[in-house]
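Q: What does the assembled structure look like for these inputs?
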Amino acid sequence: MKISPISGFPEYLPSQRIVEQHFLDVIRETFELHGYPSIETRAVEPVERLLGKGGDADKEIYGIRRLAADEATAAADSELGLHFDLTVPFARYVLENAGHLSFPFRRYQIQKVWRGERPQEGRYREFTQADIDVVDVGELAPHFEAEMPLVIAEVFRKLPIPPMVIQVNNRKIPEGFYRGIGIEDVAGTLRIVDKLDKIGPDKVAEQLVAAGCTPEQAQQCLALAGIRSADLSFVEQVRALGVSHPTLDEGLDALAAVIRAGMDNAPGAMVADLKIARGLDYYTGTVYETQLAGYESWGSFCSGGRYDSLASDGKTTYPGVGISIGVSRLLGLLLSKGLVTASRSTPAAVLVAVNDEESRPTSVGIATALRQRGIPCEVAPKPAKFGKQIRYAERRGIPYVWFPGAAESGGDQVKDIRSGQQDDADASTWQPPAEDLRPQVTAGADPSP
Amino acid sequence: MKISPISGFPEYLPSQRIVEQHFLDVIRETFELHGYPSIETRAVEPVERLLGKGGDADKEIYGIRRLAADEATAAADSELGLHFDLTVPFARYVLENAGHLSFPFRRYQIQKVWRGERPQEGRYREFTQADIDVVDVGELAPHFEAEMPLVIAEVFRKLPIPPMVIQVNNRKIPEGFYRGIGIEDVAGTLRIVDKLDKIGPDKVAEQLVAAGCTPEQAQQCLALAGIRSADLSFVEQVRALGVSHPTLDEGLDALAAVIRAGMDNAPGAMVADLKIARGLDYYTGTVYETQLAGYESWGSFCSGGRYDSLASDGKTTYPGVGISIGVSRLLGLLLSKGLVTASRSTPAAVLVAVNDEESRPTSVGIATALRQRGIPCEVAPKPAKFGKQIRYAERRGIPYVWFPGAAESGGDQVKDIRSGQQDDADASTWQPPAEDLRPQVTAGADPSP
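A:
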């Protein structure tokens, strides 16, 4: 049976997986420092629930069915599908467990999702997302809208990647502005303006006029969408357009609060960018997108926003705000361009050599002593010539080889195979430099040829 | 739309997920200390590949299909199914990436798998497994068969669970023994003896005779299966049965080597248990099962063995040995019986109180200072009365509440809400006791009522 990759379902080699693990560890650690507990939801939801959300997501859903199902049970099985994001399952989880959760309820969720889309560069059928959300009952305090990008900015600051810029807007700004200049179809106008980066200002103006705007209204929309500032000056720039509407004022105040929190706590991480709209209709306040410096054409790697009705059971409504890191998309770019690399392909920092098969227990004992002090190691598979055992370590990037009984005293020695330096060592006390203990994940191309 | 759990697809509340994370962290950390790199494989494999392995697994496979697929593409989609274990995908991964891997190749893999089985206690349709395997090209050194249970014994020693006993056997022992007493149908005999724990010795003897054994042969089979020792005395007990066969000798030597390594490195963790057979036909040497003390009737929580042909591409054969922890099964038991518990339902060690909404930036600044030194914390959602902010922390199990400016000096104070002790504190130096920094996961029932 022929073996070949399945398009859209990427897999990593061990050294690439070490990069992915480092990214996921930094994400998790940062989310937890900010007090977010983890949840995971099952991979499947009723198809009916999946179809109800996320716009035209119905085109993308994978249904599942038991291959051995008979007619009767097949009907029931066919109602389950793989989740295509983590927001729909989270909303269901909140409703299902509301009685057991304390509100406002924060959570992070790092899981795979599946979409039956046509695979293309940076788009997968199976991929990992890392989400944080906060939901509350009835009302959600606005300071949570400032918290989301601060957490994300900290994640990106800790990762070995080019600068990330979190673009923030508030839906109320275009909504109030459009109403202030007499445009009624806010959603339709937003959808056209959202294409600005793709089709340019001339085409946007054309489409706006085709949709019923006057040329003056179209130019005003473009002027608003052109405003971008890393500080609070966007407020004055909007005011200078001479439009006034209470919803616009609300939006400007809310966005200013988010940007001010960014200036105070994560300088340089955020910009107010008034063209950001997000395609999805359910956002009602702050919205976020994120660009990687130098790779703007790849689109957003981290997006989200506030929704006044994340979930509702008819009696109670749960407003929320959330943001989602596209981990697989980001890694796909970084790995394919050689922008990030792991120092080795195994967690082992030490290979304990084996002098002969009879003395393997001695080598195993040394490895046990090293592990008890947290030093990852493995024992050589064969009592080969030392040169061969060193090459075994080299191929995996293991920095140290331990030679039992190699010292004149009869004690052990350890060799740093990068420098060739070989010293007497005692397994109960020897410690590698901290940077050698775990694989290092750093920016830049793989140094190996 | 009604919301209800889906049978066989368990989900955890945040405090239960903290228990699961602790288990997964211990498993990962131990695997990495032993030099195992991680891989993940895609969730799907061609159905043809899934059907080819694992006995009657075809009954259990979930196929996937795009709901929006038209006739033509539906045909192609229907050839993919969700993996039901991590061994079949690993074998495929080894063949697909052999040119990029260094052999012998170790890996660990912690992922969800799916089986369309009828759900019952301790059986799920979606569950997490944690596997380690070593594969080599052509030949696999026997010491790896001793390594597997040593790694697993270390995992179980570090987990807050009752004692685990790893039962080890070697397929060559019953095979040589059966041949030595004139039984030709080794596989058929093994399958019957494997039911010993379920149906008892009388029924096993009955079935063996029905399958063509003499009553004496049946009694010999039962005598062999009854042998169990934590030391090497099993060898003498087998010898005392007076059977000899070269394959039996090989098996006894191999099992003695594994048990000896266990006695040296993990005393009390392993027993030689000659009734262990494992249902699957592809095991050819050492086999492992694992019982939780006091919960033997739940069956094995960790199983595996050696297979001389894990994978083959026609030219090259890759023998391997592996073992798999049934993480979800184990957690399902422990959580349902209240045998393990987390000290809180959030990673946050500190809740920073908010005096009034205007001073929120002060509280955010304190939280930032604490986080910079690795202390997980969150800022109170509302400037409510302090009693209310304390109750917010209490409900989540957060041990400390930080009061900005509460000291007579105008500095801050921190209260341990369990003892009521409140002291002056500085966010740039204060450190909680190590055991309060992260949620503690311990054996025993949830202390809350």
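The first strand of chain A starts at residue 44 and ends at 46.
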